[in-house]
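3.2 Worked example (two chains)
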Amino acid sequence: MNLAAAAARFHALHERRYGHAMPARAVEVVALRMKAISERPAPAYDAASSLPIRAGALMPRATISAALENDSAAFALAALYHREDMRPGDIFAGPAVVVQLDATTVVPPGWRAEVDGDLQLLLTAEC
């Protein structure tokens, strides 16, 4: 569609909606919106490749006394892990506490945690 046809269409739609048109006046485009979709492969990102190699198995940094139940007076011994120590394939059982800069994760007794290939922490109730 050329610009003259676009202007004529604008004036016709304006008259239909508002009951009047001024076809002798210039049309100014103030905003133009467009949506485009492009198919492309997902970016290759290997979270584990950017981590330093750890010698040995994942080990807790400490054992702490933590309130893991709704009753804050009931304390249990829990392993304390630092999130940056974890690598894909690491598995550990609760009770445990995982600390990192922006979050704390509690792994309750009877649950286990596994670190997946994207370094996500997956918690599963043990039966």
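3.2.1 Second chain
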Amino acid sequence: MKLNRSRGPRRPPRIILLGPPGCGKTDYGRRIAEKYKLQYVKISHIMKDLIRTEGKSAKGKDLKARLETGQPFPDELVIDIVRQRLNKPDCQINGWILDGCPTTPEQIIKLDDLGIIPSLVVVLD
């Protein structure tokens, strides 16, 4: 039996990595991204860059304090950063691996509302 497959272009992979701290998300994410030429999007790295650019502003100080104490970042900020990054051409063309989001049920709902739907979710323990 032959399957009828579309001759149209396939969508690039969109992968979300989930798991507790220290389970290997970063290592596996980088390896997969390198092997399949995907963009590796790690939220904590983006946040550190944002803190650096915000400098000594009130927003920068608040984000830095949250990062140092392990407090979660505001959902609106995280979702906005994810939306901006995943809408860039490199992610749209090559596909992406997202590490560090979603971390709450609210973030899952907001990603779904924005149409950011993964083709695969990998949960590590």
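3.3 Remarks
The radius of gyration is 16 Å.
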